[in-house]
């Protein structure tokens, strides 16, 4: 163990109350795995994490730790939190480098087969949990590689393809079958899967950028942040002024990507205050370091230009407490409008499922366009389950992975 990791591990108090575990969406037993790491019992530390997650090298690198496990760490009251993410990634990397297997909960085969549509964090986690419990699983993936948002949404400067490949390959060693280049509604149908499998789990994500419904949004030069990150099909930003609308992780990722691609000036416009931004503080700080500018308590109301973007009209906002709402709401200030010269506008104000696919499934939807699921992750069709972004689960990798694990438990209960 190198000295830096050793120092970070020794900093943990191994609290009996385990507040960090409560703050982790996956409920990882953090004090126990760190205790074993201190003792250089690497296999045992990895096995502890494997009880609840199979994405250690990934979650350790890209989870919003300060708002999850590290944000609940006892150490934060009198200094800095324990660097839980770094320690988790370290254990995950050791497991890969030393070929530690992900252990199975049973070797008994259940003779039940489940189809999983979508190989992102939720789908992969569901598949792993089911196979480890003796079920046969086939993942249907529209791309040539698994990963979903890990590969087609998070920039390489935050998460390398090598780490994704190695993590997924270790999971596939469990015996998961994959059908690549299979997309629901194009070359497979839900009806076909229902006939062939004992259960179906839908986790193909919700990565269509939401729109604001403002004038000029249809103009050339207005893009969705989710699509830019997924398909990596960017215009030439060299010497251009770019506005990114939103305050979440997609806004941070796309703004940093655009800046790195040579944009003259990138401005993130967010209608609330900085402390209300849903993005991780570290991501905001990193964006600032790289030269991204921020306009807080400002809102875009119009995009101006003949066919392409020339200017945007913004308005300042004030934050007020509305009845029945727990947090302050942004309200446009009258006569505070102003114009900004802009070449491109990127919308990063949320995402939804692809309506073209979802509406053809014959499943009940929520009023926000997500697939409606009950407390057992089952849709309106018996035996068809859904989770991750598609079911409106909180959109971080850890929450998606948790939903996958919980869905696997629900599927096993249904089949049991």
Would you mind describing this structure in some detail?
This protein has helices spanning 3-10, 19-23, 30-38, 42-50, 56-62, 84-97, 121-132, 149-152, 161-172, 190-196, 225-231, 249-260, 281-289, 355-358, 397-415; strands at residues 113-117, 136-141, 177-180, 199-202, 208-209, 222-224, 241-245, 265-270, 293-296, 298-304, 311-320, 329-332, 338-341, 344-347, 351-352, 384-386. It is an alpha/beta fold and 416 residues long. The protein folds into 3 domains: 3-97, Alpha-helical ferredoxin (Fumarate Reductase Iron-sulfur Protein, Chain B, domain 2); 113-206 and 353-415, FAD/NAD(P)-binding domain; 210-350, FAD/NAD(P)-binding domain (3-Layer(bba) Sandwich), CATH 3.50.50. The strands form 4 sheets. A 5-stranded parallel β-sheet has the order 3-2-1-4-16, sandwiched between helices. A 5-stranded parallel β-sheet has the order 6-14-7-8-9. Strands 10, 11, 12 and 13 form a 4-stranded antiparallel β-sheet that branches. Helix 4 (42-50) packs across helix 6. The longest helix has 19 residues, at 397-415. The radius of gyration is 22 Å and the shape is globular.
């Amino acid at each position: 163990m190198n000295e830096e990791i050793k120092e970070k591990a020794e900093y943990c108090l191994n609290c009996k109350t385990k507040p960090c575990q409560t703050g982790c969406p996956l409920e990882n037993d953090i004090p126990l795995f760190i205790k074993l790491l201190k003792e250089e019992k690497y296999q045992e530390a990895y096995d502890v994490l494997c009880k609840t997650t199979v994405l250690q090298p990934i979650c350790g690198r890209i989870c919003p730790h300060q708002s999850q496990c590290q944000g609940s760490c006892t150490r934060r009251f009198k200094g800095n939190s324990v660097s839980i993410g770094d320690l988790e990634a370290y254990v995950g990397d050791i497991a890969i480098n030393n070929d530690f297997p992900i252990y199975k909960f049973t070797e008994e085969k259940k003779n039940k087969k489940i189809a999983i549509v979508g190989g992102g964090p939720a789908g992969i986690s569901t598949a792993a949990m089911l196979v480890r419990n003796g079920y046969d699983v086939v993942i249907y993936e529209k791309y040539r590689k698994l990963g979903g948002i890990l590969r087609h949404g998070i920039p390489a400067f935050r998460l390398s393809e090598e780490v994704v490949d190695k993590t997924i390959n270790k999971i596939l060693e469990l015996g998961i079958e994959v059908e690549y280049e299979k997309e629901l509604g194009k070359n497979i149908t839900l009806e076909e899967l229902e006939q062939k499998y004992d259960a179906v789990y839908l986790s193909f994500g919700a990565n269509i950028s939401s729109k604001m419904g403002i004038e000029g949004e249809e103009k050339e030069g207005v893009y969705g942040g989710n699509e830019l990150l997924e398909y990596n099909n960017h215009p030439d930003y060299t010497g251009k002024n770019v506005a990114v609308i939103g305050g979440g992780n997609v806004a941070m990722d796309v703004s940093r990507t655009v800046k790195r691609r040579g944009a003259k000036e990138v401005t993130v416009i967010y209608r609330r205050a900085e402390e209300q931004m849903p993005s991780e503080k570290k991501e905001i700080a990193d964006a600032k370091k790289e030269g991204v500018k921020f306009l807080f308590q400002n809102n875009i109301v119009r995009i101006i230009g003949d066919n392409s973007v020339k200017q945007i009209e913004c308005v300042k906002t004030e934050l007020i407490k509305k009845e029945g709402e727990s947090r302050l709401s942004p309200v446009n200030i009258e006569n505070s409008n102003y114009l900004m010269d802009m070449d491109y506008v990127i919308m990063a104000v949320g995402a939804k499922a692809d309506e073209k696919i979802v509406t053809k499934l014959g499943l009940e939807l929520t009023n926000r366009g997500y697939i409606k699921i009950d407390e057992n992750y089952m849709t309106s069709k018996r035996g068809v389950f859904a989770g991750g972004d598609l079911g409106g689960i909180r959109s971080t990798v850890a929450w998606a992975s948790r939903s996958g694990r919980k869905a696997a438990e629900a599927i096993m209960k249904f089949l049991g």
